[in-house]
Amino acid sequence: MSLIRSLCFLSFSLEVLGATCFTSQERLPGDPCGTDIAAALTSEDRVGCFCAGNWDAGDYQQLERSTNHGSVVYSIERTDNTVPLKYCEEAFNNIIDECILDGNTWGGVFSFDGEVYNISNTYHHGNYHGNIAGNFHGNFYGDFHVNFNVCVYVSDSFVCTPNWKLDGNLV
């Protein structure tokens, strides 16, 4: 009975906390509606696959991870890599429900218990038409390695390059 009560409280806690929507990424007239965006983000169990993929406890390099669907990026940050993610699917679904379906934004952030989940649009009105989104490793005064996608908005859709890589050395 105590376990059931604890699970109910945790579920209630996540609902009460909720997502913080990105009001700076408000959808404008002509943008896709919330139901279309949510359908694309949840098709083919994208959230479940992202949450399930390669998050082994103790993997010191897995404190941050991101993936994208077109220009929309899902990202996860955590402070403790010794335990598996606890709130992944619930957090992303909360952002989709509150910010994309019920709100008028492209996404938001959900933070709880050392885990931060984020959905955002790398191309947003007022941003450049070409956009670089990726993970930067290293330091800009020495060797660096960059993985990125370049997305260009063309005729009401995005065209993205597959993972470009850039290695170099700045002196």
UniProtKB/TrEMBL annotation:
| Sorted UniProt keywords | Signal
* Signal peptide range: 1-18
By what name is this protein known? Secreted protein
Native species = Lasiodiplodia theobromae
